[in-house]
Amino acid sequence: MLKIARGRMSIWAVIGAFLFMILQVISNLNLPSLTANIVNNGVAKGNINYIWEVGLEMIAFALLSVVAAAGNVFLAARTSQGLGQKLRSDIYRKIINFSNDEFDQIETSSLITRTTNDVVQIQNVAMMALRMMIMAPIMLVGASFLAYNKNHQLTMIFLVVLPVLAIFIGLIMRFAVPLFRAMQTKTDRINLIFREGLTGVRVIRAFRRDHFEQQRFEDANQDYTKNAIKVFSIMALMFPIMTLMMSVTNIGITWFGGKLIADFSMPVGNLIAFMTYAMQILMSFMMLSMVFVFIPRAQASALRIQEVLALNSKLKEPKTKTALPANFDHSQLDFQHVDYRYAGAEMQVLKKSIAGY
């Protein structure tokens, strides 16, 4: 997929999106610690001035997060849509120079799917890459480090929760990814039948094959629908599993954190900050898994597009163009001793043919 994106995405826009995302993550990671400081040093000690001071600092970080998020979304959307535009243009320029042999290798319905649906898949993953793929690992590492600094004992909870979550997500991906790949093939089938119905509508009506073609399209449509329902039903399991893991994590942190507070081993503010970091860790983990689910589908689309772009047309423009003679209207084109056979055929359809036009 990187080969498809290379040269079609602005490197400065990608760097800008990366920098904006780092600013957003830094801002989000600072807010829980500032909340802990307000609770520990402001609320607990009744220091109003300190609350105001840290509160204004939190507002500044919140505004910085909003501005950085807006900048990242703008650049990510612009870059991903620009990638889609260039891909569609390159594919179209390639297709219009195809000979009949190339159209025999890749069906027209598949070319339509590759120019539309496959490009959209790559656009979506490019958008996710500039958003979640950058944000999730930085947030995961940063939140884990800060949570450990707040209380290293409570971080042991993640050693139980994260492996269980990884197993569930791995199982979901194992069943969902092949179904995502199958959706592209089934989309090709729908486009093929739809195109045949439009181009051959007069013949279909003349031979009263309307009901047959309707049933044929309905079967393909039903097949695609069943596949889509199955894959998204599997993907839907991720959200209740994630909610369950979050609830278990909250219960564990509250239970063990409450004991630490009762033993005066942990301030209340640190527990609040730790719970926020725990949610950030789990959400980052989920974002990473979502990206990894959609990458194989986009990779399949990228391979299909690359197949089109790598196909060399047999129609070649002559290096030197010869002007037509002045008496061209009265000229005759002669074929003398012409042999011809179709690509891949063993027998010649013309042999030593002589003709004049």
UniProtKB/TrEMBL annotation:
Keyword field contains Glycosyltransferase: no
Transmembrane segment boundaries: 12-31, 51-77, 129-148, 154-177, 231-256, 268-295
PROSITE patterns: ABC_TM1F (PS50929)
Domain called ABC transmembrane type-1: residue spans: 15-297
Cell location: Cell membrane
PANTHER family per record: ATP-BINDING CASSETTE SUB-FAMILY B MEMBER 10, MITOCHONDRIAL, ATP-DEPENDENT PERMEASE MDL1, MITOCHONDRIAL
Protein name according to UniProt: ABC-type multidrug/protein/lipid transport system, ATPase component
Organism encoding this protein: Loigolactobacillus rennini
